[in-house]
Every structure is written in C-alpha cells, then in structure tokens.
Amino acid sequence: MLLNHFKTTLFTLFIFTSSAAATVNDTTTLPPDAVSLLSFKREADQNDKLLYTLNERYDYCQWQGVKCSQGRVFRFVLQDLSLAGTFPADTLTRLDQLRVLTLRNNSLTGPIPDLSPLTNLKSLFLDRNHFSGAFPPSILSLHRLLTLSLSHNNLSGQLPVQLNLLDRLTSLRLDSNSFTGSLPPLNQTELRVLNVSANNLTGPVPVTPTLSRFKPASFSSNPGLCGEIVHRQCGNRSRFFDSPNGTVSPSAPLGQSEDSQGIVVVSSPERKKHKRIGLVLGLTVGAAILVASSLAVIVVLVRGQRKGNGSGKFPVVSPGMSSPAAVEVRGEVGRSEKVKKMEEAHRSGKLMFCCGEVQDYTLEQLMRASAELLGRGRVGSTYKAVLDSRLIVTVKRLDGGNTEAAGGEVFERHMEVVGRLRHPNLVTLRAYFQAKGEKLIIYDYQPNGSLFNLVHGSRSARAKPLHWTSCLKIAEDVAHGLAYIHQASSLIHGNLKSSNVLLGADFEACVTDYCLSFLADPSFTEDANSAAYKAPEARKSSQRATTKSDVYAFGVLLLELLTGKHSSQHPFLEPADLQDWVRAMRDDDGSEDNRLEMLTEVASICSATSPEQRPAMWQVLKMIQGIKDSVSIEDATYAGLS
Question: What pTM was computed for the model?
C-alpha cells in the first residue's frame, strides 16, 4: 500500500515538473487534456488554490471546474478563486473540444494568448482580471463563439474592424477597458447583450440593425462617440462636391462656395493676418463696386435694347457639379445675375430614376447634400451624400476625361439596362443624371465599407487572413452577383476588384461599379493592384473585356481573400505550387487543409491564362456551392457524433 502511494506521488511530481505537453514523450501514458490542465495550473495558480492530483487516468474529469465528455474536456470554469499568475500559451488551447471557458473574477495578468486552436469554443469569459495588451486578434477566428466578455481588464488599443466576422455572437461585453479608435460596424443579427462603455472609442456609432436595438447606456463613457444611436451630433460634414477635380467645399452648398462669391481662399494664418485689412478695404472697395455695378447694369440694358437680345453671353454652365468658379461671365453682369443663370442651369437637369423607382429626392436636394469623398478610380470619383431627409446615397461622378465616352441617348439607354439589374448581391443603381460634360450615377449606400478594407484594414488587428468560412461566404455572394449579370444581360462587370465589393447591412458582399467599364477615363493611370485583376487578353488595347475576363478577376479576388495579400503580390504559379503558397500565407496547420484545397482549386481554374480554359461564372458558382454543401454535410455528421 505504501509502495503504491509512493508511486502515485512520484508520478504526480513528474507531471508538475513538465514544462509543457511537448516534453511528454509517451502520450499513451499521460492524457493530453490532463497535461494541458496541469501546465495551466503551473503558471496561473501561483497561490496553489487548485488541488489537482492524478491518481487514475481520468481523474482530471473530476477536478474543480472541469467537465468531460468521453474523456475530453468540454467545459472549464474557474471563477472567483483569486488565481494569481498568467494565462500561459499552449496550455488550455490544447483542449480542442472545449465549449465553455471561464476564468472571470481572478487576478490573472499579462496578455491573452493565441486562442485560435479552440475552434469549438462557444462561450469565453475572461472579465475582471488584470489582462493587458491589445485585443486578442485570435478571437476573430472563433466562428462558433456565442458569448464574449473581456470587460474590466487593462486591455488597450483599437477594436479590430473585423469584429463583425464573429457572426454567431449573441453577447459581447468589452466595457471598462482602454480601447481606443472607432467602433466597428457590428451587425451580428443574433447579438442580444452589448456593452462597450467606459473605453475611449471615437467617431460615429454605425447605424446597423443590430446596434440600433441597444440603448445609449451600452455606449456610455466614450466621450468621442457620436451619432443617432447615442443622441450626440457628430461634427458638420462638408457640402457636396463643387469642383471638377473632386475637391470638397468646407461647408457651403453648391452655388454658394467661397469661390463663387469672389472670395480668395487662403490658409488659416493668412486669413487671420489679412482679416483686419480686408475689413477696411472691403468698405472702400464695396462702395466702388456698387457704383460700378449700377453703371454696368445700365449699359447692359441699353445694349440689350439696341441689339434686341439679352445680356452678354454665358458659357454653358453644367447642370452637374462643375465648380461655380469656372463660370466666367462675359459682359458686365453682376454676381446676382451669375447665380441666377446657374440656378436656371441646375433646374434644366433632371434625375432619371431607374426601373420605375419612386423619385424620393430631386437634383436640387442632391446639390444641397453634405458629402464625403470615398475614393477615386478610373470610372470616376465616389461620394457619400447625406440629403436633408437624412437619406444617405452613394454618388459616382464621372471624371471629365470620360464624360463624352457615351453621351445623350447612348448613355441613357445603357443606364436603363444597367438600372434594371436587381439582385441581393448587387449594389442597387437608383438613378442617373447627365448634362453637357457631366454624368452622375446614384447607388444605395452600403454602410460597412469595402472588402478591400476588410481584408487589408489594420494589419495589427488580426494575425491571420480571413477564416475560410468567411472566404467561402464572400466568394459565394460575389459569384452570385457576377453570374446574375452575365445571365440576365449581355453585359459584363469589367472592373471587378476588392474595392468594388461592398459589405451591406447584414455583411453580405455586394458588387458595385458593374457594367461601367466603357465609361472609364482612358487617361487614368491604374495602380498595380487594380491592373493585376485584368485578364491577359484584356491587357491588350485591341481586345475588349468579356465574361471570361470577369471570371479571371474573380479568381484573383478569391486568392486575395484566402491569403490576405494584395493582388499585385500574387505569384504566377502552377496549380500544385499555388496550393503550397496559399497554405504558407495562411500558416495553415492542416486543420482546414481540405477546404482550402477546394477553394484554391477554384481560384486556380478561374485565373487560367487562356480564356477558353476558364469556366463560365454560373459554373464557378456551382463549384462554390458544392464546397458549401460538403461542409454542411461534414458539420452535420460532426454534430451527430458529438
């Protein structure tokens, strides 16, 4: 009996002195879950609160806080125990069947380790400790997570924009940390508990269906947050674009910018310096201008009576967004007459709403809208416009170099055809406008940014590329949109890239800028990333893009999703080598090998050099749906066994 006790004590001592499970050679002797728990205790339980001893092989299933199923730990709950120490890496993360992990209300310090191996985790409570460092990016890969609480720690830095990828999350508490930066556009439809109070978040709270359900208290003690949800007005935005090169007036609506009023725009120091001088000169010069203007009006009226016509000629004023400063008045006509002519020109234009859409706003209302420049491309400049009715739309203004590419009836007929395209994975085109030298296209506004920003946003916000399930969903959405364009019309997208895939209110991927490639400005120089999407045959000036060109661009996009690498960084590799490259970029440990291989195969086929070797877009969609179905069957089988 004494000998048996000695053997047991010696065996337990051996386990305690093991630094990690990697030092154990005979895994058949030591259960890996037991080694993981004891390795955690060694670093996290400095005050020896946990009385863990291993007399029998499965004794660990009876330890405090441990619940097992078929010898595997699926629940580990240690709370209110005053544990003092750190949460060591490569310990609890080996419990790959873990569903619930709770370490709340202890005194654990240091950073939160990489939790990405816990792929089955559904609930994670690490609140009320002393964890420090940044938000753990590995949490973004836990796609089965339902509840997350990291409140009352000492975490710092920004919340990652990819937080919305936790699409099953139902409860989120990040209050009383030191997070800084903006609030991500959370839109987990199942989210029921949210608390991000007492941080240092800034900027507008995104208006998503999910966030709109919560009261302002959920966002309290963040002085920099603003917007409709928290009942705090954000700073004034710029008024709509009022110059040909896409610059934005600081505050004045179109027709009333500083240039249109004859004011010279100078830097702030110069303004202060010349303010007093301007006031003195203004009174003197103003009187002289008043006299001169009166004389000028008399002269014009006299000339008009003699010639039998009106005042001096005006150049054609674009009813669109041309800068008022570009309007040169010929003849001696006062500023009031110039503004009058501009207003008449604006009224002569008319917004054309597509597909029988109800006219919710007028051109004048669009002109008065506040605007934010979102970006520029070879088709034109894109703006977010907020109308007086608080309606938000996206406006694409075609640049000067391509406004004459297709004018008049040609442009109208084309936009009517494009405007009839309606699909959940296409950004809806609502209206268009054209006048001499001016073309506008109005789309629905998508609140959650572009796929480019999601993939390449803050590199510090995530350790790895998007999870393969996110890649699969986004790829299916984009394939749906492209296949619809090809089958519902004789048109092509012609400019597919990650910046032209936007994320809707429910984070569905929506394709935009479709069927506009013939309006591209030929003088616009594309960056290397945009050029990489062009199919080899479309790079020749004599060759026009086809549906197979769109398929090529989709293949490039899929590789960008899988690797997180910009399109210009994709090497030209044989299919077998491409598989190895994708794995290397993802640091794949083999856990997602089969799914990755299938998705990479689709990307490889789509980006074949010869267009004849590429499948049609509907065939690509079928391939992706086949992968999705196989995953669903695998998950169902796994659920039946667990």
Answer: 0.53
